[in-house]
Write a structure and sequence with these properties.
Blueprint lengths: L6 E4 L4 E4 L1 E6 L9 H12 L5 E6 L6 E4 L2 E7 L3 H10 L4 E4 L4 H13 L4 E3 L4 H6 L6 H12 L5 E3 L2 H9 L5 E3 L23 E5 L9 H4 L6 E5 L5 H7 L4 E4 L3 H10 L2 E4 L8 H8 L4 E3 L5 H5 L5 E3 L3 H8 L4 H8 L4 H14 L25
Parallel strand pairs: 3-4, 3-7, 7-8, 8-9, 9-10, 11-12, 11-14, 12-13, 14-15, 15-16
Antiparallel strand pairs: 1-2, 5-6
Length: 374
């Protein structure tokens, strides 16, 4: 039996199944708190119930330096030789490259040298982010991204809108990987009171220029604007908008309580590929106000759980009329188990050792060819 054919007992199926080992190379990792990290952590948590084990190669495995003005983002001093040595010591069955940073580039180079197949993911609209800081055409950065992702078996994207957009830009092999939400953590919690004047308009996210947070803070709204998150723009925003309440970065129960205590969620970003905070808000019973752009369009669709309008102030006021129960019911459709199954399907199909996953979802068949992609 190949090394990857380790068996374990499945309480769900009552039999022994091989553990499929997937290694994810990512530059985005703790202490960062964002959608990429949360998505990867959720996949790792749900993968064992589907017969897989997900591990990570992160900046923690290398010497790294903090990015100026973004100290929580660490640039790993990674090389293909280092990654090759790691693969020899910890051989996976499948490889997924989550980000286009130094770790991702080193893994990509190592895989190409060894003839390994791999999948990638497109999480962030870096061309648009960079264009807000530097006078460089976005077409140059999309060319670089196409070059990075071209050798992958599949490039995973969060929504059909991104899939169409990247397809029009010349990307190939695009596969959908939706997101989920922890509906046991993010839930309505009646009776919570933040002691601020109502209605409470909440925003959760990184305080950086690309998030367009000032579009929210400039609105003339009744009640109180609440901002949860941290980042390079926080000090300036706190000074410029003293009437808003900045609660800093929150996690776990503290974050869930902030959602549940608010009356509406305002999402001013025009560049996010998805916006997992939208699902967290909906699961907490919060209606959403946003611009009609990718991310909100895909998450909300025609659910009636939010208001998408170029007039964000009108959207925020109108959102207050939406039923919290409706938002909660809609969010219950977004299960991390479904998201994890999509991720595993793409990773396994992208490897030479792929054996078809049954339509029912759980990985219950024998993976007789596992390890041949090494």
């Amino acid at each position: 039996m190949p090394a990857s054919g380790i068996r374990h007992h499945s309480a769900l199926q009552g039999d022994c199944r091989p553990v499929i080992r997937i290694l994810v190379a990512t530059d985005t990792w703790r202490p960062q708190i964002n959608g990429v990290v949360r998505s990867l952590e959720a996949v790792a948590a749900h993968a064992p119930s589907l017969g897989a084990e997900v591990s990570f190669l992160t900046p923690d495995h290398f010497h790294s330096v903090p990015l100026p003005s973004y100290p929580e983002i660490r640039l790993a001093l990674a090389t293909a030789r280092m990654v090759t040595r790691y693969l020899e010591e910890h051989p996976p069955d499948y490889i997924h490259i989550a980000t286009e940073g130094p770790v991702g580039h080193a893994m990509r180079k190592a895989c190409l040298r060894q003839g390994r197949r791999f999948t990638t993911a497109y999480h962030t609209r870096f061309p648009e982010y960079i264009a807000q800081r530097l006078p460089v055409p976005v077409s140059i950065f999309y060319w670089l991204l196409r070059r990075f992702h071209r050798p992958s078996a599949y490039t995973l994207v969060a929504t059909p809108t991104i899939q169409r957009d990247l397809g029009q830009r010349g990307f190939t092999g695009l596969s959908l990987w939706s997101r989920g939400v922890d509906t046991s953590l993010f839930r309505p919690r009646p009776g919570l009171d933040l002691k601020f004047e109502r209605p409470l308009f909440l925003h959760v996210g990184r305080l950086a220029v690309e998030k367009n947070i000032e579009a929210f803070l400039r609105l003339s709204l009744p009640g109180t604007k609440i901002v949860v998150g941290d980042g390079p723009e926080r000090k300036r925003l706190e000074t410029t908008y003293p009437n808003a309440r900045f609660l800093g970065a929150l996690e776990g129960e503290a974050l869930a309580e902030a959602y549940a205590a608010a009356d509406a969620f305002v999402f001013p970003s025009r560049t996010d590929t998805y916006g997992m905070v939208l699902l967290e808000a909906l699961a907490s019973g919060l209606p959403v106000a946003a611009y009609p752009v990718m991310g909100p369009l895909d998450v909300l669709g025609d659910s009636g759980c939010g208001v998408l309008d170029e007039d964000l102030e009108r959207a925020a006021i109108t959102a207050l009329t939406i039923s919290r129960e409706r938002c909660r019911d809609y969010a219950l459709r977004f299960l991390w188990s479904n998201s994890t199954q999509q991720f595993l399907d793409a990773a396994l199909q992208g490897g030479t050792a792929y054996a078809r996953v049954p339509a029912g979802g759980l990985i219950t068949r024998r993976w007789s060819r596992i390890g041949q992609n090494r």
